[in-house]
Give the backbone structure.
Amino acid sequence: MRKLPESVTAWLLAAPMAIVLALFLVAPIVMIVAVSFWGATEWSIYPAFQFDNYAFLLTSEVTWRVFFNTIKYAFITWVFTLGIGFTVAYFLAFHVRSQTWQIALFLLCTIPFWTSNIIRMISWIPFLGRNGLANAALISAGVIDAPLEWLLFSDFSVILAFVHLYTLFMVVPIFNTMMRIDKSLIEAAVDAGAKGRQVLRYVIIPLTKPGIMIGTIFVVALVMGDFITVRFMSGSQSANVGRMIQNDIALLAYPSAAATAVVLLATVLMIIGALLRFVDIRKEL
Amino acid sequence: MTTISKVRYSRRSLLKAGGAAVAAAALPAPMVWGQETKNITLRQFGTGVSNLNEVATKVKEDLGFTLEMTALDSDSVTQRAATQPDSFDIADIEYWICKKIWPTGNLQAMDTSKIANYDKIVGTFRSGKLTPDSVIAQGTAPHTVGFTTGANGTGFVQEESGWMTLIPTIYNADTLGIRPDLIGRPIKNWSELLNPEFKGKASILDISSIGIMDMAMVVESMGEYTYPDKGNMTKEEIDMTLGIFTEAKKNGQFRAFWKSFDESVNLMASGEVVIQSMWSPAITAVKSRGIPCVYQPLEEGYRSWGGGLGLSASLSGMELEAAYEYINWYLSGWVGGLLMRQGYYSAVPETSKAFMSENEWGFWFEGKEATDVITSPFDAPLAKAGEVRDGGSFYDRMGAVACWNAVMDENQYMVRKWNEFIAA
């Protein structure tokens, strides 16, 4: 049997994946981009090539405010998830000596993820409410006289829920890269006279960067694309881009929703592009 | 304490019913001679209020065919009726949705001569007048979008043409819900929603076409402005209305906005909110937890809504006959009784009377004192002997309607402004 030329074999091997990606990733995005130029009436959408959707979107002050709000949520959530995620991963990787314990504690982190993320989010509502557990505890401890109103249906509760929901997405990749740091490097640093802080600053953090970056991409993408957390935790009083899209879809304004989605996609890609300039993930993995 | 509402029986049992219906469709019973109707399945979808599992069961019992039901929120209902005409046979929608959907041609007109109880349907849905001397309320009043020119009519006509777009099935008069125990004084006007006394303890619903009407009631009650037609505002009126509410929002008047029934129940039951726009079964749900809650009648009147059944344009032949049979059955009283015992009204109230006890009829329809415990069709106690329905009798309540849920000419503009309000 004649052997196929090498280039053909390579193409054939790549084909299944390429087809899957083309059908389920590229085609939908192309469709969204196409529809974003269409027009809409109250009950129908019609093919067209017009810039109305973008014109309205980009000239509306509300859009800018909502995008700013979305990025604000993403940034604050990122700071907290990174801080907590890094600390947890560091503890697991370097302070817990036995591998059994490492695995056990790591699994412990994942237990909350056995329930739906909506449930995890909604369970904050009775906790933070005006007559909720947090306020009741603070009042009975004598810390406050009147219930704190800002605990629920505020930016605070939105970010709290985000941090709670997404910290694990930071822990996992950081823990993973930390586990693969050659311990002899740390010993060498210590032998060379580095203090704990210096080891962290010059050895561990640089070597953990790919993990931090992967975690960052997860968190940023999840928060920027969210709509349900913002809706429930802000009591519908705040908006982010996801909610804008959801509102448009609910009102049958698909073209306008598509245009918003395209702008959001571009924004997220730019952010991730910028992040990847700092670290070459592929090289480091 | 807020908990996930326990009153989701309708949705949940509906899912079960849906599952059973799918199973029934996949495993049809062996063909029985001369009983072709047994194999007919009608697919109905609509908002949760009247999409009850009990109805499907009773249809199977009384008429022999299968009714498959899907419950969706009003936005999704509109979307589906407009974009997927082949996914349903019967649409259970509200009149303002009909105003949006009818021009798509996805529904077909119904011949009123085939509707047995047509003459008994209350005036609101035919001439627009509940009693001969009623004043027609503002907004998308059902009779304005209830009739079309003929079998293939695409527009609406204002008189009884013999061709109906929707057969009315269910309606009610909505108002503000309050927690009398936390407010401690009488509430008489819509303007109380923006009263600084309730700063951080008020809520309004985040469904633009309904919310804007509640807002208009508040603005008029405050004496800020009198609309020529609340149901069809100009751009300036929309800006002004939402401007007043945006300012209130920035001042922290609202605790939250709600979109689903459950959210409104939880906000009220937990005491996060003491005054808000609400739907009548939500009041019932709060009360059934033993928490005082009143559906407060207000001097300016009610904001009303109505729903009906529409037939898909693709229905024909035996399915179409079955659909007519179903609609006639719907108006013949059993469903009416089921709905009226939950506090809604039936389009043909007199046929429902036979399916209600004298006590129930007196309490729900005539506004009389209950002579005995009033329970819901699902056996939850709703009122004790001696209690009176908030707002009184059918004629007191439906006669005091100030406006109907509406779709405006400037709807798209309003929706954009609404989104700005939410983002503000």
In short: Chain B touches chain A through 40 residues (CB under 8 Å). Residues 1-34 of chain B have pLDDT under 50 and may be disordered. Residues 178 and 322 of chain B are 44 Å apart (CA to CA).
